[in-house]
Specification:
The protein has a single domain, classed as Deoxyuridine 5'-Triphosphate Nucleotidohydrolase, Chain A (Distorted Sandwich). With 191 residues, it is mainly beta. The longest helix has 10 residues. The strands form three sheets. Strands 2, 3, 4, 6, 8, 9, 10, 12 and 14 form a nine-stranded antiparallel β-sheet that branches. The chain is globular, with a radius of gyration of 17 Å.
Length: 191
């Protein structure tokens, strides 16, 4: 069952659902009828295409292939056609044991042909910290993105039974407590 705005606000106020931001923005203002909007932080990562001829999932992607960019609050980033970036959310979250989190596209951005999270759109119970957004411009023209803009909406769903192996307890959880946007850690997978 998806949580309503009333239940989302109740859980935030009670501390069951922990959401914090870098600039103390009022999170309750971001609650919609059945979702919660998250905003872009000022930190993102881009692949250095001139240094990168191939990505091998079995090899760790290090900083010589990735550039971390920090924008001032008033700056924007121009996302070019077919460009892919990893961008963190302003908000940090701690999901309780009885919820999962489903990321949904904001139609206003989809109408500009920006794809956000075409893959990793689901978070397990007890995930903690920022979320890395996968953003691609599939438009034919560049699009400006701004720190602080509402970029994504998240719906919370209840779990019917107690979870035995939450994200924080799994040995293979690779993205816990991330702050900056995080590149793929698939090379850490255990086969």
């Amino acid at each position: 069952m998806i949580l309503s705005d009333t239940e989302i606000k109740k859980r935030i106020k009670s501390g069951e659902l922990i959401i914090s931001t870098e600039n103390n923005y009022d999170t309750l203002q971001q609650v919609w009828p059945a979702s919660l909007d998250f905003r872009l932080w000022n930190v993102f990562k881009v692949y250095k295409r001139d240094n990168l001829s191939l990505i091998d999932p079995n090899i760790w992607i290090d900083s010589k292939y990735i550039e971390t960019i920090r924008l001032e609050e008033w700056e924007s980033f121009i996302l070019h056609p077919r460009q892919f970036i990893l961008w963190a959310t302003c908000e940090k979250i701690k999901i309780p044991y009885d919820l999962v989190w489903r990321c949904e596209w904001r139609s206003s951005l989809w109408r500009l042909w920006i794809i956000i999270h075409s893959t990793a759109w689901f978070l397990d119970p007890w995930f903690e910290w920022t979320v890395t957004l996968e953003i691609t411009n599939i438009n034919e023209v560049p699009i400006a993105l701004h720190p602080g803009m509402r970029i994504w909406q998240f719906a919370f769903e209840t779990i019917l039974w107690e979870v035995e192996n939450t994200y924080d307890k799994r040995k293979w959880s690779k993205y816990m407590w991330q702050i900056d946007p995080e590149v793929s850690r698939i090379s850490l997978d255990l086969y």
